């Protein structure tokens, strides 16, 4: 539910939660209920999702772009799954070895660093010009408290705290922000008002009724339908170039996560149910999830960590969690709480989340010999192109910096793949 809050544009956290639940059920179906994995909204696609609304694009067309992007990303998974089914996985290792994927994953996190820092200085209440009314220094304090609590829970917490450090961090930051906001309202001091409590007051604006407690989420496809008349070939091309390269990066994470959880449950999921099945489940589940919630889904580290810590690898538990996510998405007080979380709190959490993405990419190159010129040049080209913001435009179609960096890395790696071992020495 965090991804829609970060993207904004009136995206519904409730719909994203529903999408995660329904996407997980699709994954379980494709994997014949043999893989204990929960799908959640992917942070790797944040930049791609933002591209759907870039350039003054209307909300309706932007929502349609989210669904199209998820379809492009899911199609990548489906195509790779078909290829893996017939020819195996060796070609994948050759095209995208760790020296290519690692730096690319790293720049996904690094490219979002500015968003986290920007949110860290904003409250949830804006003036007529859209600027935050809260004191930036106060917002930073709340965000840093959120970050510190998250880190302490993850590092020193007991089992339950280590399972949900981000949730505890958000609650702690929210509580501090609420104290300042209440004081600000009592003293009529806008600089102290960080949280926008109108999300709760709107629930009872028309009196207390059934919708105060239960309501349908704002599903993505309902808004996307209205934008069909604005679509153009250039926009489709832009969305494709924003999503497809990231899908290849997330594909590498898919393999890493399934290898990780396979070691935990002592059963190779890449053999049974098979990589082609997990890819199909992830790809189709991502598309279905985006149709309802707008967010492409993916396997993610938190899900694997839950299995590792609890040692509960039951698929029944995963199915129960998915159904629970679907049901909770209809509870309006819970949705109002999520919508009221101020940007500074999310900024504190995102400092850790985006950092995790960057560090996970660096971990992929730990065993890569950067003393070899081939590896050094590949990693250097990707990092500089990505962090430097090298993007390519062909008419109205733009290849994002992450996509450009990945493509450049693949090309450089293939060009230098004939390097002789004795030359490297």
Highlighted features:
4 strands, two-stranded antiparallel sheet, mainly alpha, 425 residues, two-stranded antiparallel ribbon, 21 helices
Q: Could you write a compact summary of the structure shown?
A:
The chain is 69% helix and 3% strand. It is mainly α. Helix 6 runs antiparallel to helix 18 and helix 13 (233-265) packs across helix 14 (270-293).
Task: Explain this structure.
The chain is mainly α. Helices cover 69% and strands 3% of the residues. The strands form 2 sheets. A two-stranded antiparallel ribbon has the order 1-2. Strands 3-4 form a two-stranded antiparallel sheet. A hairpin with a 2-residue loop joins strand 3 and strand 4. The termini are far apart.
Describe the secondary structure blueprint for this structure.
Elements: H1 2-7, H2 13-30, E1 39-41, H3 46-51, H4 59-87, H5 90-95, H6 98-111, H7 113-120, H8 136-156, H9 159-163, H10 165-187, H11 198-201, H12 220-224, H13 233-265, H14 270-293, E2 297-299, H15 301-310, H16 315-328, H17 332-340, H18 343-364, H19 373-388, E3 392-394, E4 397-399, H20 401-415, H21 421-424
Antiparallel strand pairs: 1-2, 3-4
Helix pairs in contact: 2-14, 2-16, 4-13, 4-14, 6-18, 6-19, 6-20, 7-18, 8-10, 8-18, 10-18, 13-14, 13-15, 13-20, 19-20
